[in-house]
Specification:
Blueprint lengths: L1 E3 L10 E8 L16 E10 L2 E15 L6 E15 L9 E3 L4 E3 H11 L38 H11 L1
Parallel strand pairs: 5-6
Antiparallel strand pairs: 1-7, 2-3, 3-4, 4-5
């Protein structure tokens, strides 16, 4: 979505609101496609003392697979959008977005910000216990079925303790 800002370029205090939906369902993250629903983008561009400030939010409900227990879960993700916009640049400044013929590509800015803010590790909960490496049971739902393995370095000591119990 391209937004023409010509009407507020030289009018301090003026603003233009925006709201649209963005389809990022084809974006893959580690072999998964968690953005299965549209990303809702809302906000405004405001002229603050001849400086154009874009502020807004991009949010969606994402579908994940927990990296520890492999269970599917959904969680809302919201990303704040905050950009300075300018017609021209003097020098290099990565924090300022250049306008293209008095227009800004909101879909590109919001999509890039949303994708860059995606988590590299997803957990269903902070205290997720994951899967047992021995029997593969989900430790959040049931206890491990594995027999306690005795450290081979302590096997003789375990035998001595077993003899004392008899």
């Amino acid at each position: 979505m391209r937004l023409n800002l010509q009407q507020i370029m030289h009018v301090p205090g003026a603003s233009i609101p925006f709201a649209f939906q963005l389809d990022l369902s084809q974006e893959a993250f580690f072999g998964e496609y968690p953005i299965s629903r549209p990303v809702t983008v809302t906000g405004h561009v405001k002229n603050v003392a001849d400086v154009l400030m874009l502020e807004g939010e991009a949010k969606s409900l994402l579908d994940y697979t927990c990296d520890r227990c492999m269970c599917r879960f959904s969680r809302e993700k919201a990303v704040s959008l905050r950009f300075l916009l300018a017609e021209t640049l003097e020098g290099e400044d990565d924090d300022i977005v250049l306008l293209d013929h008095d227009e800004v590509d909101l879909a590109d800015l919001a999509g890039t910000a949303f994708i860059l803010d995606m988590d590299t590790k997803t957990l269903c909960s902070e205290d997720c216990k994951g899967l047992c490496p021995g029997c593969g049971v989900n430790l959040n739902r049931e206890a491990c079925r594995c027999k306690k393995q005795v450290d081979p370095r302590l096997a003789k000591l375990a035998q001595l303790l077993a003899q004392d119990d008899e």
